[in-house]
From TrEMBL:
Its EC number is 2.5.1.18. It catalyses: RX + glutathione = an S-substituted glutathione + a halide anion + H(+). The lineage of its organism: Eukaryota, Metazoa, Ecdysozoa, Arthropoda, Hexapoda. Keywords: Transferase. This is glutathione transferase. InterPro entries: Glutathione_S-Trfase_N, GST_superfamily, Thioredoxin-like_sf. It comes from the Eukaryota. Belongs to the GST superfamily. Sigma family. GO terms for biological process: glutathione metabolic process.
Length: 57
């Protein structure tokens, strides 16, 4: 398990363990990033805001 952290996603037989990278990868793969670059920006802002809120606890 890379970095001894969860979540871990296996891509092409290799583990990937950074939660934000995994979320963005899956969003792109399953066309969840919106219709354009602005929509993708808003998705990134929401993910980063959640991360900031988690760190503030």
């Amino acid at each position: 398990m890379p970095y001894k952290k969860l979540p871990v996603l296996e891509v092409d037989g290799k583990p990937v363990a950074q939660a934000d990278a995994v979320a963005r990868y899956l969003a792109r793969k399953y066309d969840l990033m919106g219709r354009n670059e602005r929509d993708a920006l808003i998705c990134d802002v929401l993910v980063d805001t959640l991360e900031d809120l988690e760190q503030g606890e």
